[in-house]
Design goal:
The protein has 2 domains: about 140 residues, NAD(P)-binding Rossmann-like Domain (Rossmann fold); about 160 residues, Lactate dehydrogenase/glycoside hydrolase, family 4, C-terminal (L-2-Hydroxyisocaproate Dehydrogenase, Chain A, domain 2, Alpha-Beta Complex), CATH 3.90.110. The chain is of the alpha/beta class. The relative contact order is 0.14. The two termini are about 35 Å apart. It has a 6-stranded parallel sheet, with helices on both faces. Strands 7-10-11 form a 3-stranded antiparallel sheet. Strands 12-13-14 form a 3-stranded antiparallel sheet. Helix 1 packs across helix 8. It is about 45% helix and about 20% strand. Bound molecules: nicotinamide-adenine-dinucleotide. The site of nicotinamide-adenine-dinucleotide has 32 residues, from helix 1 and helix 3. Nicotinamide-adenine-dinucleotide binds next to helix 1 and helix 3.
């Protein structure tokens, strides 16, 4: 399994480390328009590989070097600075995607390659990458709200004193300021959230819910404030997505692909070796459904600005 990573900044490097540590790939190639940065990352990661799985890691100077890649991860482009939203990156990163995707497609096997998009604003970049690549929608996969869902799961786990593995909870819609927490669909140990809270006498008040929502929606802003960018969470999310693809696990992940209506946003989707095969429509409250539709409208509007 050969994986190419385009863009080896904070996120690309963390993704490379997390992917290497899965032990599921035999080769990782790194490309960045800053060749020195890619070479330094390959060198450093190569040293790390000597302590763990024997993965061949190299930097490539041009797109011919990604030939034979089964999966291409795009993590290039500007990141949010303090005070910026993901949407502020729209025009700049659209140019980055326009630069990268045609060159990638000229060097991979379009019959089976899978593109994973990490660049923000995520959902619009998925729409653009799908348009440029002409790949089937299920093989242009944005990490979407995987990270947001992970953040929600972690916060709930700490609140309820159970393992995150025992919680099913999804954040849906845009990977951005309009993402929607599917409170109606949360289950803990197979029980709906409210039932779990009643049985364990750990009620979550309305104001506690608002606080959780605030923390999920603002996590990236707080991390950027403290360390300049976010990378560990997304690195782990990409590795998790890759695992479901490489092992054909058919796990249900909140990833973003272009749907029949032409809009990409996150829903619970089945992910396996051929990409996304099934998308689910969650049972949400009327308010949550309205919020999800509003989120889709924002993504559509932003795509229209390109
Ligand atoms: P960074 O500035 O550290 O790195 C970006 C890298 O992209 C740089 O090395 C740069 O040289 C490279 N690059 C830019 N244009 C390029 C091009 N045309 N071809 C090849 N390489 C190019 O930024 P970062 O912190 O690594 O963030 C990268 C992207 O990931 C941003 O858009 C950020 O918002 C996004 N991100 C997404 C998530 C998510 O959940 N989807 C999470 C965190 C960050």
């Amino acid at each position: 399994m050969k994986v190419a990573i385009i863009g080896v900044g904070s996120v690309g490097s963390a993704v490379a480390t997390a992917v290497k540590n899965t032990g599921l790939v035999h080769e990782i190639v790194l490309f960045d328009r800053d060749g020195m940065r890619a070479r330094a990352a390959a060198e450093d990661l190569g040293h790390a590989a000597s302590f763990g799985f024997d993965v061949k890691i190299s930097a490539v100077n041009n797109y011919r070097g990604i030939r034979g890649a089964d999966i291409v991860i795009i993590a290039a482009g500007a990141n949010q600075k303090i005070g910026e939203t993901r949407t502020d990156l729209l025009q700049h990163n659209a140019e980055v995607i326009r630069d990268i995707v045609p060159r990638v497609m000229a060097n991979v096997d379009s019959r089976n390659v899978i593109l994973i998009i990490v660049t923000n604003p995520l959902d619009v970049m998925v729409m653009l990458a799908r348009e440029l690549s002409r790949l089937p929608a299920g093989r242009v996969i944005g990490t979407g709200t995987m990270l947001d869902s992970g953040r929600l799961r972690t916060i709930l786990a700490r609140t309820l004193s159970v393992s995150p593995q025992s919680i099913h909870s999804f954040v849906l819609g845009e990977h951005g300021d309009t993402s929607v927490i599917d409170w109606s669909g949360i289950t803990v140990g197979g029980l709906p959230l409210d039932d779990f809270c009643r049985q364990t006498k750990t009620p979550i008040s309305v104001s506690a819910r608002r606080t959780i929502e605030y923390r999920v929606h603002n996590a990236a802003y707080e991390i950027i404030h403290g360390r300049g960018a976010t990378w560990d969470g997304i690195g782990a999310a990409v590795a998790d997505l890759l695992r479901s693809i490489i092992n054909d696990e058919h796990r249900i992940l909140t990833v973003s692909i272009v749907a029949k209506d032409g809009i990409a946003m996150s829903l619970p989707r089945v992910v396996g070796a051929s990409g996304v095969t099934v998308s689910l429509i969650p049972k949400m409250s009327a308010t949550e459904s309205a919020e999800l539709r509003a989120s889709a409208r924002v993504i559509k509007k932003n795509f229209g600005l390109l």
